[in-house]
């Protein structure tokens, strides 16, 4: 497909699927067509695709030519004077930004319904409006419906992987610190990670390779020396045609949807048929990961969002702001933030208060450390950030597993109509399988696996997201296993006669 044909196809799909509200803002179609007609002999370094590919950017990642609103009333008019580093890297690699995608306000949500610009949605097989997942639901839907080639999102506790699972695309959260966060509007600094959506594993990984660079402007970006050390450790292990697959027993929870459980088992059988071996592992502390996350992330958010007061940053409310009994910016913050953002700010402020910090925030940090240690104990590969990684040659790789395989979400995407009566706690439960990897900063990818309906009807079954989690820094290994799973799913579909891929 030529550059112009690709752009025309995406523009046509943007018009066709506009009612899904995947985008908050779009570039001028005429400009995109002109860009696509430029010299197609140009090829950017470190990239396998010609420069005319359209990519969508989540609306909490700064772009200088489009507004960056974070789907919030308080930033609805904000235009950044610069591009985020990841956007600069994509432009240098030849990508064209298609637009900014819809999301949960400031990245806080599991269904992309907490947006000042309206809820993101997807259409089910029977035409019912379903959740697109959150908070990067717009990016996932844009890729799913062919409105762009690929998309960037952010993953704090599962905000890339959960939408990928719900929409049936690939969603990858790299190891924390590999991709630059400079120019990304923060939700929780110690968790926020730029993630990637693609139609398949290879396309997703190619974009990761483009962005996997040290950024001196980002204090959380891994320095070149550490990156070299990680590469040397991976090279010591070398490529293995057979991997040891870990099955976390604690993830087989009672709330797991039967379809999700059967698809998980199917994925394990498919990987076993490729020669990989299956090994049960125990991660008992991860059952506390969700509780710890919803103390730590809101605490960081309450600090990060304090600056949006209409004085330093953000749109100021009309009329007098504040009374003798309230602070100056009470009206601005009360009107500017949505209900979910205000809920998390209050939760975070409470856990950081002098009376509660020891019982909540400090305890949650201890759980986070235990979760990280538990992951290190089950992986055969050492954590390259720990000193004991220096003795890599002495590690017995047969005592641990290479990756973990588990569901991405405990349920299929719920109807949007059912979310009106859903409690916040029920919404938070959607992150139960994604949060542990976020606490430890591990690489994780959600791969869509087709579930064929039990009645053997000719109608396609649901896509279920299956998650591959690996040791810190071993992102390439995670994507290699994901590719094996993707290939096995395609081969299985050929045998059964069903199609696999986006609807």
Can you offer a commentary on this structure?
The protein has 503 residues and is of the alpha/beta class. The protein has a domain at 3-225: Amidase signature (AS) enzymes, CATH 3.90.1300.10. Helix content is 34%, strand content 13%. The protein contains 15 helices and 13 strands. Helix 9 (289-304) crosses helix 11 (339-351). Mean pLDDT is 89; it is low at 41-51, 389-395, 456-461 and 497-503. The active site is at residues 58, 135, 159. Its main location: mitochondrion. It is an enzyme of class 6 (ligase).
N-C termini distance: 20 Å
CATH architecture of the domain at 3-225: Alpha-Beta Complex
Share of residues in helices? 25-40%
Biggest sheet strand line-up:
1-3-2-6-8-7-12-13-11-9-10
Strand content: 5-15%
Q: Class by helix and strand content?
A: alpha/beta
| Number of alpha- plus pi-helical segments | 15
Q: What is the arithmetic mean of pLDDT?
A: 89
Q: H/E order of the elements?
A: HEHEHEEEHEHEEHHEHEHHHHEHHEEH
Give a short account of the largest sheet.
11 strands, mixed
Shape: globular
| CATH topology-level name of the domain at 3-225 | Amidase signature (AS) enzymes
CATH homologous superfamily descriptor of the domain at 3-225: Amidase signature (AS) domain
Give the radius of gyration. Answer: 22 Å
Can you identify the CATH class of the domain at 3-225? Alpha Beta
Secondary structure: number of strands: 13
Spans of at least 5 consecutive residues whose pLDDT stays below 50 are 41-51, 389-395, 456-461, 497-503
Function: Allows the formation of correctly charged Gln-tRNA(Gln) through the transamidation of misacylated Glu-tRNA(Gln) in the mitochondria. The reaction takes place in the presence of glutamine and ATP through an activated gamma-phospho-Glu-tRNA(Gln).
Keywords: ATP-binding, Ligase, Mitochondrion, Nucleotide-binding, Protein biosynthesis, Transferase
Protein name: Glutamyl-tRNA(Gln) amidotransferase subunit A, mitochondrial
GO molecular function, one term: glutaminyl-tRNA synthase (glutamine-hydrolyzing) activity
């Amino acid at each position: 497909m030529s550059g112009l044909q690709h752009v025309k196809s995406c523009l046509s799909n943007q018009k066709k699927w506009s009612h899904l509200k995947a985008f908050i803002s779009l570039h001028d179609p005429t400009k995109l067509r002109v860009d696509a007609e430029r010299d197609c002999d140009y090829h950017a370094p470190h990239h396998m695709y010609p420069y005319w590919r359209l990519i969508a950017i989540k609306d909490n990642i700064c772009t200088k030519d489009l507004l960056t609103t974070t789907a919030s009333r308080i930033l609805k008019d904000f235009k950044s004077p610069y591009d985020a580093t990841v956007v600069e890297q994509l432009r240098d690699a030849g990508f064209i930004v298609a637009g900014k995608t819809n999301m949960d306000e400031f990245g806080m949500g599991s269904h992309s319904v907490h947006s000042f610009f309206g809820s993101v949605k997807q259409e089910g097989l029977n035409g019912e409006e379903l959740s697109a997942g959150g908070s990067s639901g717009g990016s996932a839907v844009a890729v799913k419906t062919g409105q762009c080639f690929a998309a960037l999102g952010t993953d704090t506790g599962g905000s890339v992987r959960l939408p990928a699972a719900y929409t049936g695309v690939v969603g990858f959260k790299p190891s924390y610190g590999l991709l630059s966060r400079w120019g990304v509007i923060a939700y929780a600094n110690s968790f926020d990670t730029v993630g990637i959506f693609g139609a398949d594993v290879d396309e997703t990984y190619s974009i990761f390779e483009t962005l996997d660079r040290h950024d001196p402007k980002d204090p959380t970006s891994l320095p070149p020396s550490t990156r070299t050390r990680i590469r040397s450790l991976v090279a010591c292990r070398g490529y293995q045609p057979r991997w040891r697959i870990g099955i976390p027993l604690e993830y087989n929870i009672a709330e797991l949807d039967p379809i999700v459980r059967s698809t998980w088992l199917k994925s394990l059988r498919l990987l076993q048929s490729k020669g990989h071996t299956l090994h049960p592992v125990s991660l008992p502390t991860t059952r506390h990961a969700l509780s710890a996350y919803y103390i730590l992330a809101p605490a960081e958010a309450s600090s990060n969002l304090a600056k949006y007061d209409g004085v330093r940053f953000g749109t100021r409310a009309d009329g007098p702001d504040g009374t003798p009994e309230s602070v100056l910016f009470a009206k601005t913050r009360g009107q500017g933030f949505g209900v979910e953002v205000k809920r998390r700010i209050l939760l975070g402020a409470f856990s950081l208060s002098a009376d509660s910090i020891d019982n909540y925030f400090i305890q949650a940090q201890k759980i986070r450390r235990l979760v990280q240690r538990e992951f290190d104990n089950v992986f055969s590969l050492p954590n390259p950030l720990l000193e004991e990684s220096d003795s890599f040659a002495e590690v017995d790789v047969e005592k641990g597993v290479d990756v973990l395989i588990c569901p991405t979400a405990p349920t299929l995407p719920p109807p949007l109509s059912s979310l009106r009566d859903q409690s916040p706690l029920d919404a938070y439960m959607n992150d139960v399988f994604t949060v542990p990897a976020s606490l430890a900063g591990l690489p994780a990818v959600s791969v869509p696996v087709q579930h064929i309906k039990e009645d053997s009807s000719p109608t396609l079954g649901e896509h279920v997201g299956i998650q591959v989690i690996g040791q810190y820094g071993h992102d390439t290994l995670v994507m290699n296993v994901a590719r094996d799973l993707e290939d096995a799913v395609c081969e299985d579909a050929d045998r059964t006669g069903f199609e696999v891929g986006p609807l």
